[in-house]
Amino acid sequence: MPELPEVETVRRSLTPHLTGRTITEVQIFLPKIVRYLTVDEFKQKLLGQRFLKLDRRGKYLLARLTGGWTLVVHLKMTGRLIYIRPGLVINRDEGAWRHVHATFSLDNGGVLVFQDLRQFGYLTLTQTEDCLGLKGLKDLGPEPLSQEFTLNWLEKKVQGRKAKIKQLLLDQTIVAGIGNIYADEILYAAKLHPERIGASLTADELARLYQSIRSVLQQGIDCRGTSISDYVDGEGQPGEFQNHLQVYRRTSQDCRCCASVIQRLKVGGRSSHYCPQCQPNVCDQHHGGTRLPRSSTD
What we know:
By secondary structure, this protein is α+β, with helices and mostly antiparallel strands. The protein folds into two domains: 4-133, MutM-like, N-terminal (N-terminal domain of MutM-like DNA repair proteins, Alpha-Beta Barrel), CATH 3.20.190.10; 151-291, Helicase, Ruva Protein, domain 3. The protein contains six helices and eleven strands. The strands form three sheets. The chain has a four-stranded antiparallel sheet, with helices on one face. A hairpin with a 4-residue loop joins strand 6 and strand 7. The protein starts with a helix and ends in a 7-residue tail after the last strand.
């Protein structure tokens, strides 16, 4: 699933192509991707709208339009939002375009394309003043690279919690935008076992976790996201952070820092990758985590 660094990279790569452009035609080929409005309402309200700027909140892309409207896009697991330059023909019968579910034609001849292999992503349109009240957006925690996300906030949200730290990192009400990839990499950088209970973390460990959240996500943005399967940016280009992964999907490979072998277990139903030497469970409490065979698929 595209996480904060991927969605931020899509935002940055689309901004120069969309800002100031007017939508001249909207085509929806899979009606279920449009939420909270009928397809006809969605199309009618978008026609003639001009892109003012692109924002991001957590894993959501927010396209600010004229008339006080915001186009909300959630890519979910395999969604893509790609700008197609003028002159390129989109043929949905061809393999490369088969999973195009929506197109937004622009006044310069370019086209904004929404693709989604798994069909979990969605689009909606809302008044900008009501945007942050939408389901999924209204309960998001602070942006991890913003001034609102402080060590004090993290301490308040983690201390006293009986949940495992991996689960807490994935809780979007605590901090917005972190998914499975970056949670694993953050915990590795912080030298914390994914099954550590939130209440067990010391002040020093919480400080390490806070710094790791910010540094790992910033590195992910600097590398333009992680391309493992489906993710590409708004110009169709892959990211590079997959070349810097320390533990995620590296089961049975050597740790880059020590001689141990990367292991995998399930925490809260999600795969978690870690180094047993660099990330010891110092409390020796696994709390029901299910360890998976080293031969399992990541």
